Predict the structure.
Amino acid sequence: KLVRGRSTSQQQIDWLAGTRSELHSLLLKMLKRHHAPVALVVTALGTIVLSIIVSIASGDYYDGLSVPFISYVGRDEPSYYVFAIGMSLSGAGVAVVAVLERAWIVRARRFLGLRPTCATYVLVVIMVIAGVNLAVMAITDHRRYWSVHMPAQAGIIVHQLTTIAMYLGSLVAIIMTQWQCSALCRAAEAADAPSASKALAPALRRSLKAKRVASAFLALSTVMHVPTGYLYRPLACGYTPPRLTRAECEESFAAEYCAAWADEVNASLTRFVDHSAEGRCPPKAVAEYNAVTQFLNIALLLCCIGTMAIDLAIEIPAGVEYSVPVPSPAKSPARNAV
């Protein structure tokens, strides 16, 4: 409705400003903080499943393996675009969840009267590095960016170490959130804690239990995967695995496809690793075991990140802080009056 004494254009500007404010409030209500970890898990798992479907439908070659590594399903077109976009978004989501989790921990510690800790910054740094590593892994596929993955010994060593660091760093980050949640549980269940703090105890206990279970399975899968997947091959087999020749490739695939995968130095070879070759080290069974445990490790890592949704769903009362009582210093005896 128009108001007397004000121009039509000014009233339209006011109406647009009010509408924008209402839409902003509605968006904030729809996009709760605890939706971020759930969206991350759905995006990552959906990307992996869709990439596998597109890759199988396209007839991609998995280096002679029945069960491919996760990077194998995203190295050929068109599955590459699905994998690169989805995993890049997931990597960015890991960084966003890390920032949200740290903000929640800081607010919860302040509310429960705990001192701030620098460990929350370490949590953010580790998860941001893991997110960047995930995006780089998705974008630098074997076909276009072979030099990042396997051509030289130094490149393989760096690749192995950075991947191990991502797995172990992510495990450390999950254990750190578990440690923070445990400290919050103890503070909320303290005998002298007010009722508002004790009301948070059941949700914090549920979050702590979920983190303990998820981190235990993640630690077990990391122990199952890292030694055989990233240590056995360079220590026992060296860095020169047998590769598929152009002639062998063209027996099963089109010449254009094999030419696209030709080695940059030796044109008679492709960049496909021949896992079915006789005397292959590690054996094909070990390589497929590594592929299975890799998928398991990534799925459990996403489950651990998903437990952060429990934390972010816990509403910390704003404007109220429970302060730990600090004893007042002893008063010195009064001086004698002159």
User: Anything to note?
Assistant: Residues 221 and 296 are 7 Å apart (CA to CA).
